[in-house]
ABC transporter ATP-binding protein
Amino acid sequence: MTAAAPDLLETRDVSVSFGGFKAVDRVSLNVKEGSITGLIGPNGAGKSTLFNAIVGEQACDSGSIRFRGKEIGGLTPDGVYHHGLARTFQIPKPFAAMSVFENLMLAAPDQPGEHFWVPVVARRRIDRRESEIAERAREVLAFTTLESVAEEAAGQLSGGQQKLLELARVLMSTPKMIMLDEPAAGVNPTLTRVLIEKIEQLNADGCTFLVIEHDMDLVMRHCHTIVAMSNGRIIYEGDAAGAQSNETLLNAYLGATVDA
Ligand SMILES: Nc1ncnc2c1ncn2[C@@H]1O[C@H](COP(=O)(O)OP(=O)(O)OP(=O)(O)O)[C@@H](O)[C@H]1O
């Protein structure tokens, strides 16, 4: 990432409340194209709520959200996904009874036959699209090291493999930016290393990341920019060195319980 990289994602004064409680309070966040940006902060800071607001899963009270220069605030999660912005969940949500391979097939955009008006004569086009999706699924399985469990039920995978499957599912759509919600939580060190290696490979190929993570070692070593939230607000934005000596940030953590 170059210092002069443009902003890929920009939020301006985004607020989200639950009843009278402001979980996200006028947050203006910039994510540079090509960066791995870490979003940190104590439990309850508002990180996941901000994620949900960005991807259209949570309505905002006010504010604007721009992705690649276009307003995406108010779009449905599907609409946001189609713009090239994908997210994974803190707790993986695969179709547990389906195989890993089937989960990937289902995650592909432009599913053949999903439009009721496709005529029978279009069968060959549908078959072609299905083989393209299957080929992409095999590539993604190889990339995410999940080939050996392709036929296993997704619900039978270990926690770490399920996190890799989350990443694999979003890769079926070749997104421009991926938002990861606690990718390393509950993952053993070996699979965490695999996950980081994959994130860095994708980043080197041009994919931008915004990552919520409580593992400070991971954040400090692998994120180019760090944004910290506390009580719904951004309290720090800068590099790792600055974050480690920032008093407001240290106090926010001292006053809260952290999973790390
Ligand atoms: N659906 C909801 N209804 C009511 N309150 C909510 C809801 N979702 C989140 N909150 C509250 O909003 C605040 C921010 O929660 P959020 O999950 O965004 O924090 P977080 O920074 O992601 O925390 P963690 O690191 O523990 O995941 C918390 O006080 C939480 O209890």
Q: What stands out?
A: The mean pLDDT is 89. The domain at 7-254 is CATH 3.40.50.300 (Rossmann fold). Strands lie at 7-18, 21-32, 36-40, 62-67, 70-71, 85-87, 177-181, 208-212, 225-230, 233-238.
